Amino acid sequence: MKEEDFFYVNNILHYRISDKESLSFDFLKGRLFNRLKRIEHESLIKKAIGKNKVKLKIFDATAGSLIDSIIFLKLGHRVVACEQSKILYRLLDDAILRAKNEYNFFENLSFINSDSAKIVDSHLDSDIFYFDPMFKDIKQNIKRSGTLQKIGNVLSLERLEDTSEQIFNQMLNKKYKKIIVKKPIKSNPLHEKINYQVKGKAIRYDIYIKT
Fold it and tell me: Positive or negative, the Cα torsion across 153, 139, 83, 62?
């Protein structure tokens, strides 16, 4: 990561991935903004969380573009979101700072730049542990375009490996209430003993409950 590869356009922080592409995030306009405005359509993730009258603490072990964490926040929950990429973290932190005046739910977000494995033990009081281990799919699908492909390129530049499966397996041996794993609809589960699933056309949520 080189400091000179960070630059601003219209007060938005960008990272230069190559001579032809750069990455930035904006929660005030564009694709991410449009999704936030359509929170009522996020029925799958709502079903995965379940009906709750109280505010939950959700630990997002794989923050990525932060969009799922923001959905949790808009639903009224508290979120600890962990992102191991220094580049993604810096770009997203810039986007959060610009959006704080528009969205007061960011007050309930703790955004951390770290490998989840190093901090998860400090958050075992969480009501839900959330995993979106799609790193491998992003890296392998070189035909994919747009933000996901750019994120994959950034992760490759930083030589980061997906640790979500190892963290998930660690969690199975710890005390937890609920684990939610987001997966492509036809992919293999991280663990066979799923309590129940919430399925859409392209993705599904595998839910694990400690009994």
Answer: positive
Type of residue at 36: L
R_g of the chain, CA atoms, integer Å: 17
Instruction: Give the residues across from 57 on adjacent strands.
Output: 78
pTM recorded for the entire structure: 0.89
CA distances from 18 to 1, 15, 92, 150 (A): 12, 9, 19, 10
Range 3-209: architecture per CATH? 3-Layer(aba) Sandwich (3.40)
Name residue, tokens 């007061």. 104
d(CA 160, CA 170): 19
Tokens of 160: 């980061």
Give the tens place of pLDDT for each residue, 52-91.
778 999 999 999 889 899 999 988 999 999 999 999 999 9
Q: Phi and psi at residue 28, in whole multiples of 5°?
A: -105, -10
Residue 5 burial (10 A CB sphere; 0-12, 13-18, 19+):
middle
